[in-house]
Design brief:
It is built from eleven helices and eight strands. It is α/β, with parallel strands linked by helices and about 270 residues long. It folds into two domains: about 240 residues, Phosphoenolpyruvate-binding domains (TIM Barrel), CATH 3.20.20; about 30 residues, no CATH class. Strands 1-2-3-4-5-6-7-8 form an eight-stranded parallel β-barrel, surrounded by seven helices. Strand 1, helix 2 and strand 2 form a beta-alpha-beta unit. The longest helix is centred in the middle third of the chain and has 17 residues. The relative contact order is 0.11. Bound molecules: 3-methyl-2-oxobutanoic acid (KIV). 3-methyl-2-oxobutanoic acid binds next to strand 6.
Amino acid sequence: MSVHKKDIKKITTHQLQEMKNRGEKISMLTAYDFSMARILDQAGIDILLVGDSASNVMAGHETTLPITLDQMIYHAASVVRGVDRAFVVVDLPFGSYQGDSSEALRSAIRIMKESGAHAVKIEGGKEIEDSVKRILSAGIPIMGHLGLTPQSIYKFGTYSVRAKEEEEANKLVSDAKLLEELGCFSIVLEKIPAALAQKVAEKVSIPIIGIGAGGGVDGQVLVVQDMLGMNKEFKPKFLRRYADLDQVITDAVVGFVNDVKASDFPNESESY
Ligand code: KIV
């Protein structure tokens, strides 16, 4: 039986909150293009994140810093066109919100208007309070991001686990409470001790989505190319691989090259 688009129940912030309330875990993956977004959406993913990890994964940069607002909008609009059900969140890229809150609002409005996405994600806590307030005041839902915030990589110096010390852990808990009070609908916690992440998920009522933050939170996010095994070199402890697409793609391409060289492709049934 085919499902008509109008019968598909779209995921909303309200539904995500209900999922936390009833203890149903939330699934989230990154997506940066139409064809991948369509597959992930049809497979039943709850949230698609157009992450600024596109800077690494799609463009081959070492960090997330170089990607621009225009490039994020291009990726986001492509993802939105592939989605019928999932909730689409887009990262505000480095340099598009740190200047002042009016710039943050302008950037968030551009993302929503030009891509058709459903929410933005923004890294940081107390230091971006004004921007968070301003964006929320325009009716744009915000997902926070605390812990290892890759846009601050040059401040941290490494991609190692954050908030292991009491001072940083206390700031993280108070930032999470602040983001909730301000009205964010959810928070990503990246690469922090599992016990701390669980404590945050218990202390705030909004959904907490973890990456490298253990199983005591309300949902999990991974970069899709990592979980599909397209990036063999990247093997952090938190990553579970669900496929070996590097091998699958390599085998397919080797097969194609061999068939072309041997004049085996195309055959008669593949010709007009
Ligand atoms: O940009 C991204 O992919 C992210 C996730 C790792 C949460 O922010």
